[in-house]
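Intended use. Records like the one below are meant for learning the mapping from a protein sequence to its folded structure. Do not use them to infer anything beyond what is encoded.
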Amino acid sequence: MVKLALGNMTKVKGRRMILLMVLLAGIAFTLHQGILSRSSTEPCGLACLRHDTRPFILTTPGCSIPDFDPLHPSVAKFRVTQPKEYNCSQHRPLTEVRGLSLLLHRDRAEEYGVAKDELSCVYQGIVRVEQDAENFTMDCDKLYKLKKKVALNGASTAINEDGVIVTCYGRIYKVYQTVHYFLQPRRSKEKRERFQKEHGGQRRAMLSVLIMGIDSVSRANMRRNMPKTFYFLKDELGALDFQAFNKVADNTNPNMAASLMGLTEKELTETCQPKRTKFDDCPLIWKNFSDAGYITVYGEDDPYSGSFHYNRYGFVKEPTDYYNRPYMLVSHSYTKHNAGLSGSFVLCLGGEKSISVIHDYSLAIANTFRDTPYISYYWNTGITHDEVEWASATDLPSLEYLRKLNESGVLDHTILFFISDHGIRFGDIRLTYAGLLEERLPYFFVLFPPWFKEKYPEAWKNLNTNTQRLVSNFDFFATLTDILTGSYGGSSRTTRHGQSLFQEIPINRTCEDATIPDHYCSCEHSSQVEPDDPRLHDAAEYVVDQLNFGMTAFPECMKLHAVQVVRGQIGTSHKGTLKNMLTISVVFMTMPGEGMLEATVRKQEDNFELTADVSRINMYGNQSHCITDPFYARYCFCQDLLTTLYSNTSSEAPMNMTGT
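Structure written out for the chain above:
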């Protein structure tokens, strides 16, 4: 009886174990399928975050880059449990664009508290004001003008403007305002006719190029806070994930100059920006595409702090055939809001999310120019620039955009670059080693038409190989150059820096080979040392001396003092050819202003040399309001703030150059 009972119990336990295994397998399958089939409006939980981390992103003879889990203890707190969500409007829009017509939906007036017969709407054309090269200004009011108001009477009105602002009123009050764009055929008529004549409408003869960027999102943070987009690109679309894409400069401007011109910061100034203002004379690659017959497009959600518009930077003349900045300036002036949330974000433009405005603009371009090749460059800054967690707010909009793009069929003749410029550059995450790496490693995906790998097998093989090689912005530029000439299977054109991704990148490639300055190089070549190491102290003092020397041109700024080393690393130089050469990376605090700076210097005997710009890794707000120089604004602490600073602090003893 006992044996029989035990045998039955064993059978029961066995069945339970089998059932448990089946149940667990079912759960695992369901979770995996949930990533792919989950509705676009459902929050993304832990099921969307795969723990596919390995010890190294890259491990080659020339470079090893550690791979931190997106939920590594040092950075786990920067993942949101629920994506950042907000609504820009509770109502359906009163107007929308259909082709070259503006539709008015009077039947929606009651949603705005207005009777249909009381609603009155007008539109005004938006015109870009041509700038004078000698008196270039970034004053918003001088960069556009609004035409006279025209009443919207019918349900559909033909529009001959490139952009309009629409305003609707009830009896007395304004109830609705938004900006619309129109892709007027006159801007591309000649190129469309030329393409039809030379290629007979064969779209695969010249592939379109679509570059869609989101500011300040590392590949790791994309995995952490944009998992739906990340895995949709990889699993559904089959996009190539260049995991070791390493930035070459500090912020957006010089990184995109490297990507779209193939120039270093120094070369940029020497070549086309002696006054650091206008970009008109710069060799932007879309000029070459334009000469070859491509329609050119430029669109950004933030007209002040995007790729080529920051402080005194900008274009005197329209740089592309379709250029949305004048209309975006109006949108920011009249319709920008943050959905009732605090912060320096640009979340909403009228009733639409700022990122969705750019997505819709991109989709309109793609659908309008199915019959003609184009190169388009889009950038989204407003949501993600300031806080690492806000990348989550772009996950669902980006997923929806990619789905619409894929379903439209335009990807059959388009190469999509889905990219960022760098990771978050300041804040608490930058005080971690994982955060340091993230800042240098933005995401970089490339999606080719489905037929490409069959037609160009060698190029496809090299592209896949290069996803596991060290890659930089200069390689992006070289690749665009090859796309322009259709050099997918033959020899690449030579560029000053970088190598086309259609050619295999050497396995022993180093940061120096890729024209990545030591300061931004993610390859492990050094080891952590204690914060009280005197070599870190000496390096910090040297960096501050250099900054103070540069700021002698700005007497409004206080002299800086290095007061505390936070962390540092010391190793051998990448070059490895100079005897006793050390590379020292140090993070330290300066006073006044509590500036947190990060710098990389080379030291040989008693001689120091900065390898690149000094990074400011915490926000400086209005500390440098007394100067307009975009470079030194990162370090300057205005003298007129000193009284305020010390009136709000206790008389404590000054800090020493010791670790935290």
